[in-house]
Amino acid sequence: MHSSVTNPPPSPQPSAAFVGASWIALLVGFAAFNIGLWNAQMPLNEKGYYFTVLVFGLFAAISVQKSVRDRLEGIPVINLYYGISWVSVLLTVLLLTVGLWHATLSLSEKGFYAMAFVLSLFAAVVVQKSTRDNLRRDSAEQVSAG
Fold first, then answer.
1. Cβ(120)–Cβ(28) below 8 Å
2. Residues 9-56: pLDDT tens digits?
3. Is the whole-model pTM more than 0.90?
4. What string of DSSP letters covers the chain?
5. Residues near 118 by Cβ (< 8 Å), separated by ≥ 6?
6. Distance set, CA 97 to CA 41, 82, 91, 92, 113 (Å)
7. What distance in Å separates the CA atoms of residue 122 and residue 109, rounded to the nearest whole number?
8. Which of 7, 57, 68, 77 could form a disulfide linkage to 92, CB 3.0–4.6 angstroms apart?
9. Is residue 141 scored above 70 in pLDDT?
10. CB-based contact 25:122 (threshold 8 Å)
11. How confident is the model over 71-78, as a mean pLDDT?
């Protein structure tokens, strides 16, 4: 029986140090952003805006990584979902940029939020990738042992 989906060559497995560093980067970025919001002298609705942009951005970045990886592995991804994922990432970056541009914050505070946001999004992609790589390795080991 022939399948139209081919198995890609195995990708290098991330080391425990790499996985740990990526989780730490995600937690540090997310925590720093939210601690900054907690301590900020801004209205609650503004804090909610920035928090929502961060969470939406994390979800969108993970969706892009998963969609790209699925396509590379021959797993079908609907073009609409793929496109919405990319638009969502770009939209979160735009929303954060516009929000910070118009915020009455010092430049150092604006830079802090921007860097914590970018760190969080990048780390979320890396965590998702390394988690998927490890799950794939574990699945392959179970098949070869069974």
1. no
2. 556 677 888 889 999 999 999 999 999 999 999 999 999 999 999 999
3. no
4. ---SSPPPPPPPPPPHHHHHHHHHHHHHHHHHHHHHHHH--S-HHHHHHHHHHHHHHHHHHHHHHHHHHHHHTT----HHHHHHHHHHHHHHHHHHHHHHHHS---HHHHHHHHHHHHHHHHHHHHHHHHHHHHHHHHHHHHHHH-
5. 29
6. 19, 23, 10, 8, 10
7. 20
8. 57
9. no
10. yes
11. 91
On the CB side of 134, CA atoms within 13 Å amount to 12
Q: What's the rounded Cα separation, in Å, for the pair 146 and 92?
A: 45
Q: Tell me the C-alpha to C-alpha distance, in Å, between residue 22 and each of 14, 30, 109.
A: 10, 12, 24
